[in-house]
Each structure stands twice: as C-alpha cells, then as structure tokens.
C-alpha cells in the first residue's frame, strides 16, 4: 500500500482532453512542488486532492486514512487559490475567521485566532478592510492566513504567485517561504513558474500530459532533466546567495558574482542567469564582462539550433552556444574554457 | 424616448389631478380605508416572506441541480406568470377549498378552512407573485462565480453555510430586486384574491378590492384610495430602488 | 423601437371596430341577474329582426353605471334597481324615461339537497352555516341587507361577492352553505336549490330599462326596449322567474 504517514494520492481521471493518471506521495513537513506546462493536469490534481474534481479511479490516503470519499468540507485541507478568492462582502478578519467558524469555533475565539494569523502575515492593521481594498500581494497573504488558520493537515497552493505583479510576488514568496517552513503538514504547491518551483520546493514533481515525467530534488531534476520540457523549464542558472551591496553577490559556496542592481535589497536573494547570457572563450578573455572564470566542460547536449553546454566549478552552469561556436571552440567533455558573464546580465530577486 | 415615459406616467398624473382634493379629509376617514390598507400591507409582506422562504430554494434547485423533468418543473414554477389571476384563484379554490382536492382533507381531518380567510389572501398573493422571485433569483444564481463557493467548501463550510454566508450575500442586490418585484405584485393582486379569499372588510378586503367596489358607489373615494396606494408604492419603490440600483 | 410602436398602433386600431359596426348591431348593458333571461330575449329579438345583432355586457349594475358614465359604448341599460338607473338619469345619459319592465325577489340559494336544512333567513344566523352575500355596493347586496334587517337577523358573511353571479358561484362550487341571491338566479342554476323567502321578509326589486343617448342605433335601441316591455318579452322573463312590473 502506501506508507503510514503523509499523503498518498493515486488519481486517475479524464476531464475534457486531459487524461490524468498519477501516483504521488508527499511526506509531512515536506513542500512538494508540482510543475508542468499549462494543461498538464497540475491544477486538476490539486482539485482532486481537495475534493473539487471527481476521480474516476484511485485512492487518496492521508496518514493511513482514506479521504477520497469525503466532500471538500470534510477533508482536512486548506487551499490558497491563484486569485485569492477572498469573500468580497466580508471583512479581512471575517475572511480569515471563516474556516474556523464554519468548522464550529465560536465567533469570539475564531476572531481572536484570525487576528493572530493576520499579525503573523503582517496585516493586522487591515483587519477591518474589505478585500477589494487590498493590493494583490496583501490579498494573497490574507488568503494564506485564511488557509493556515484552520490548521489543515494538507496545504494546497494553486499557482499562488501567478496573478501577482513582480513586487507582490517577492512579498508573497517571502511570506510563503516563512510560513511553509513553519507549517508541519503536507504541502503541495502547483506552479508553472520555474523560479517559484526552484525556490519553494523540497521535492519537485514534473507533470506533463497527465503523467509524472520526473521526480526528485530540484538539483537532481535540473541536473538530470529527463525531457526537453524539463530542461527548457528548469535549465536556468539559479543560485541562492546573499546580496552584499549594489554590485556584489556572494553565493552559498563563497563564490562572488559581480552584479548591477538598482535599489539593492541587502540580504538573501536568488540570482538567475540565462544560459544564453554566458559567453565561452578558449582563453582568458579581455572583455567588459565583470565576471570571468575558468571552468571545465562536463557535458554537451546537441540540439538543432544550439548546443547546451554544462560546465562545473566554481559554480555548475548551463551555457547555450551555437553549433558553429561549439565546433570552433572544439568543445568536448573535459575541455578547459573561460566563461564570461556581464554583471548586468545577472537578475537578482530578493528572497 | 421621453414620449414613451410620458405615456406611462400619464394615467398616474391624471389620477392625481382628478382626486377630489376638497373632499379628501372625508374620504380619508372612510372606515373602509384603514382595514383595507392594513390588510394590504400585512398580506403583501407575508406573501413576500413566503416567496423568499419557498421561492429561493426553488430557484437554487433550478439553477444548480440537474434532475429529470426539470423543464416541466420550471414551467410549473413560472406558470402563474402567464395564468390570468382569476384562473389562479379558481385553481386555488379547487385545490384548497372545503370541497377541494386537498382542501377537503384539511377540513375533515384538521378543521382547517382556507377560503375567505386572511391566510387565503396571503396564499393567493404568494401564488401570483412568487414566480417573480424565482425568476430573479435563478438568474442571479446562474451568474454567480462558483469559485467562491468552492473556496468556502475547502474551508469546511457545508452547503447551508455556503448558501448563507457566501451565495446569498453575493446575489444581494438581485435578491432585493426580486423581493421588491414580488412585493409590488402581491400588493396589486386582485383576481386571485377576490376569487379564493373573497371580499370581507377587515379579513380579506385588500386595497385593490376596496378601490374596485368604491368605484361603483363613490368615484371620489375610489380616486382617493387609489392615491393612497399610489403614494405608498412610490415611497417604497423609491427607497428600495436606491439600495438596489444605487441611485 | 419605431417598428414596435407602429405595430402596437395597428393592433389597437384593429381591435376597436367602431367603424365596422353595422347600424343594426345593438349593445345592451344589463344587470347580472338578467343574464339567462336577456340572452333568450336577445335570440328572440334577432329571430324577429333579421338584421339585428344583439350583444350583451352583463355585470353588477353599479359597475355598469361606472362604465356608462365613463363613456362606454352602450345603446341600452337594464338595471337591477332604480337607484343605479337614477345615477344614469342624473347624469343626463338616458335617451328617454326609464320604464320598469320586471320585478324580482330574493331567495336563498343552498347546495343541492339542502344539507344544512335551511328553511329561512333565521337559519342563516347559525354559526355553523357559511353564508355569502353580495357586496353592499351592488343592488343585490343592498336588498339582502334590507331583507335581513326586516327579518331581524344579524349574520356575518364569509365574503361579499362583487356581483350576484359571483356570489352564487361560491355556493355552486360548494364553498359556502348559502347565499342570498335573486329568485331568478336560484332557478337558473342547476347546481343550487332555492329556498323561498316569505313576502313579509322579502324585498321586491324593481328593474328599469332605458335607451341611452350616446347610441349609434337609436331606432334599434327603441325597438329593443319595446320588445322587452312587450307581452312576449314579459312571457320570457316570467319563464325565468321574474315577476310582472
């Protein structure tokens, strides 16, 4: 069967053109991110676990107890929707207290606990506001508080950042990281955004065409992509580090990147480098790029219009070059090359 | 465009013009007015209340649930809209009269006699007015974004809680519009009331009946009574109109 | 929008057929109690006057008066009491002096077989008996109140019908035990039995008829009044239970 703790979801259903058939296991206190292209079935899978989509075949078992026969209101779930879906005619406090009151908690106590949760997401001062008065980021934080307030055993997040603008995304991503880490139930996040996937996941599940095509830690999946889609999606160069100033970013392993950031938010951040932004040289380059270093080619991935080159030390990188360039440089595993990366080509996002 | 508005306003303006203003204090103290007015208000409000209690669940059923014979059910629910009110009254009599299909048992077993009672007037008004509630609410329910109801379910809300705290507030303005229409229709009902409930001052003689009979003996009084009904209706509709349509 | 308005106009003009009426068509407004008798009189009249076409509007006399006062097209008016005819005369709407053409009396209509065993007005006061009367505003209602007062009977009806036929129909449907209507109504209906009211308690209703001024067919209207007041007319009326004037 399945293991005794955590969530075991075996779901098979047909919905329109989607034919979903997956078997997913999530440990408690683990954030699993389900990532995949639109139409892959990620949201449908989430809805099936929530009880909002009927399952043709399968079993959903939580800590040894099957829950697939139960309607959503009886499942120990909390959902954060892409559009927040805060009840527009209720105050923010009433929204957060809604789940508690619906499950039988007296109004006064529910309101008190809701106020605590609002405090935790930093929105205690908006308790009396109405959802239409909130910004996108604020609304999603309230939605998070609302889902967490009922202390669900399964927390489901459906593309929680997709509808937000860039600034709100940072704000909510930060809130998510903080609260997901503190939350000890099963956590499933659905997203199509690679940055979201890589920064939130303890474990990644890649869904495509209704089937699981790859599973593993973010590092495993990125380094050993099993399909073009995964490589495409996750073939970013993504590093966690600390931004020390407008122009210096120290990666986890100590390596320092020169960056060019306006209005730097000093502190933990994520640096993203497009594979196409890195140039390879046969010898030490004299270029304007502030970041240059020596590396060894590990692997080559030939595609019709470009070659994906994997290099190692000091940081593993994925570099895209043209087939012509690859030939000219005589690139092959083991070859020593120089990499050049402009400081301005590093995009930095605060965590 | 304005011409059409004038066309509708003209009869009402004419009414106001023809009211015998010099006799108005006499006419207003006519002993028939108070009971008729009280009855009209009591019965129309009660009929509206019943229409909410019975009509909203029916509307919800029609909007949300699939079941065999739904088209027939909808036709039946809306039938009083096309039925001449007197026909409705006769139908009620045949069903609930003391010789009625159901009524005879009500009488034999419980001693309940419906015709010629205030309850009969309420039932008659509910019968003709409830379809307005059903149509308005069904339309509103169909337009509701059901994702909010899903969200409520995931938070642990059962069907009743969802209806009460999420769905009904969401259709608030439409519900209010439905209530207004229903009340207005109930207030003006004549044919079904006089047939099923009869005509007796203080029991069943609502304003429309009082006006109809007054017309035959004292046109002045009839005009004055009509004016009273008109004023009350305008005041209520104006007050409610602001809530529903905002302006 | 314009098309809708035009369509409405066409519809309305098609409905009003004032221009289509031949000079021989006659519109008679008559009290509800005259429904059966006048219908037969109308057929007899048409048999004699080949080109004539009699149309009736039956209703409570008081309501008919209102319609006449407001200009409804009527050629002749037969009322159930003199008070209502007087309103027409006072308004100057009659073409000639009204003539009393028949009289009527009241009776009690009960369900077939008289299940409640009603013998007279006094029995109607019994709380177990449900009674309907005509509304005070119509002639048969005033007459009924008069008769009850004369007999010294006080009762509370469950309803007061807007016309004598509406009042009768309540007993016909079985929704009331008794109704005070005209003798002619009780006789005309197969679904009720009639209980006689003795003369001392009864009221004699006088029915007048008159041609109206605003008529498109004054000759035919006169012919009709003549026919109704003729021996032949009376014979038909008496068949239905009316009394000679």
Structure write-up:
- The complex is a heterotrimer of chains A (351), B (247) and C (245).
- Chain A is built from 9 helices and 20 strands.
- Chain A has 351 residues and is α+β, with helices and mostly antiparallel strands.
- Chain A has 2 domains: 7-234, Rossmann fold; 237-350, OB fold (Dihydrolipoamide Acetyltransferase, E2P).
- In chain A, α5 (166-182) links the parallel β7 and β8.
- Chain A is globular, with a radius of gyration of 23 Å.
- Chain B is an all-alpha fold and 247 residues long.
- Chain B has a single domain, classed as MetI-like fold (Orthogonal Bundle), CATH 1.10.3720.10.
- Chain B has helices spanning 2-18, 24-28, 33-64, 70-82, 85-96, 103-110, 118-143, 147-154, 159-170, 172-188, 191-197, 207-217, 219-245.
- Chain B is globular and about 65 Å long.
- The model of chain B has no long low-confidence stretch (mean pLDDT 89).
- Chain C has 2 domains: 18-103 and 206-239, D-Maltodextrin-Binding Protein, domain 2; 105-204, 3-Layer(aba) Sandwich (D-Maltodextrin-Binding Protein, domain 2), CATH 3.40.190.
- Chain C contains 9 helices and 9 strands.
- Chain C has helices spanning 2-15, 35-48, 61-69, 82-90, 139-151, 164-172, 183-188, 218-229, 231-239, and strands spanning 25-31, 53-59, 76-78, 99-110, 131-134, 159-161, 178-182, 193-196, 204-211.
- In chain C, strands 1, 2, 3, 4, 5, 6, 7, 8 and 9 form a 9-stranded mixed β-sheet that branches.
- The longest helix of chain C is centred in the first third of the chain and has 14 residues, at 2-15.
- The N and C termini of chain C lie far apart (59 Å).
- Residues 16-22 of chain C have low confidence and may be disordered.
- The chains are: A alpha+beta (351), B mainly alpha (247), C alpha/beta (245).
- Chains A and B meet through β6 and α2 of A and α8 and α9 of B.
Descriptors:
heterotrimer, B: mainly alpha, MetI-like fold, 13 helices, 79% helix, C: D-Maltodextrin-Binding Protein, domain 2, 9-stranded mixed beta sheet, 9 helices, globular
CATH class of the largest domain in chain C: Alpha Beta
Class of chain B in CATH?
Mainly Alpha
What is the makeup of the main sheet of chain B? none
The ordered string of helix (H) and strand (E) elements of chain B is HHHHHHHHHHHHH
Oligomer: heterotrimer
Q: What is CATH's topology name of chain B? A: MetI-like fold
Tally of alpha and pi helices of chain B: 13
Structural class by secondary-structure content of chain B = mainly alpha
- Report the sheet-strand fraction of chain B: under 5%
CATH topology of the largest domain in chain C: D-Maltodextrin-Binding Protein, domain 2
**What is the radius of gyration of chain B computed over CA atoms, rounded to a whole number of angstroms?**
21 Å
CATH superfamily (homologous) name of the largest domain in chain C: Periplasmic binding protein-like II
